Amino acid sequence: MSENESVYRRLCNILPSLRSEYQHYTLQIDRNGTITTRLLSEFFTGTLTNKDSGEVTHIVIKVVPAFSFIKSYEEIYRNEVYLYSQIFDELNKFQKQKEVKDPITNLPNYLGGHSSANKEFIVLENLSIAGYKLYHGNECLTPEHLETIFKTYARFHALSFVYKHEYPDRFQQMANELVDIVKLLNGKELAQPIATAYSAAVNSFNAAADAEIIKKLRDVSNIREVAATGRAYDGDYACLIHGNCSMNNLMFKYSKSGDLEHIKMIDFQLAYISTPVHDLSYIFYSGASKADMDKLDYYLDLYYNTFASFVLELGANPKEIYPYEALKSEWKKYSVIGIAFGIIGWVKKLMNRDEVVNMYNQNMPRDIRIDSFRRQMLEICNGKPFTEQANAICRHAVEYGIF
């Protein structure tokens, strides 16, 4: 029996694990197999049909990928199941309690899931059928997209900040249930790629014209350690963050005329409690153009104005919850994680997608997958598309006072 056939048969029996409102539905799993593969998941499609009305709900089902990235996926899926079934439900109730006029609707509808070993799955609405799309290819985000993203995360962060303010004990209980998956994964496989990409970025500067910038960049001798320090938040303004805020984890819906209408945040397996700067800097440096990096203060103002407005609607004081001055100072201290992931993120965007997946495929001999990944990575790091973007990120980091 093929791997896909085995997974298909298992998924045909997941209906009892779905939420109670879907127990009067019939489940149909597409036999065509996966629609895409990521490092921590594969996705199957299917439908749920109401036995009485005939109403059809299109779904995607996240399962453990066919290759083995890590020994156990149980904690990873437990994190996301807990977020959807407990934390997000609690935050939605909080919005209703506060009678929010325009509640947050930027999360996919969760239908059920399971996190026991070898039975992991998560069922979500199929956003593609609803008209949502991933951002195209390896292009920078447009100003319209960046504005929408910053406003969306402002409200998302504000909601958990105010909930934490009003129910600190409950918030801490929920936070204690979350596992820091990045620490669990350890990130050893990314250490050398990040160092290689950063070195290529530094070498892209003109030795004579950019001597001062090069000196400051070379003072950051171990970018991975600096990024790890930036990720270890020890401040006073922690909230629930997405944790994996890349362009691949955002889906966009457009009007018939092409205008951006709405955004959905997906893939919360790496969510944890930390500074909003970790989310914002990740998407900013992995997606912004040089022109938009020069407008960082504009985007931070936009974020904070949206944040403050929603905090006020929720009945709290934004200056007490998260002062604007804290956002600005924390950006200079903690955005280095976004810079590191932004630089390596551009390598991944320009790389053959199968190479990225194979890099983590423990079923392949380690020396073969690393050698293949390294060869393509070096080719990309020496190419103009990468060096232009990485140069812009590093120049901005120096000019803004991060390095």
TrEMBL record:
SUPFAM superfamilies: Protein kinase-like (PK-like)
Bilayer-crossing regions: none
InterPro entries in the record: CHK_kinase-like (IPR015897), EcKL (IPR004119), Kinase-like_dom_sf (IPR011009)
Chain ranges of the CHK kinase-like domain: 122-313
A Pfam family this chain is assigned to: EcKL
Protein name: CHK kinase-like domain-containing protein
Taxonomic source organism: Dendroctonus ponderosae
Encoding gene per record: 109545372
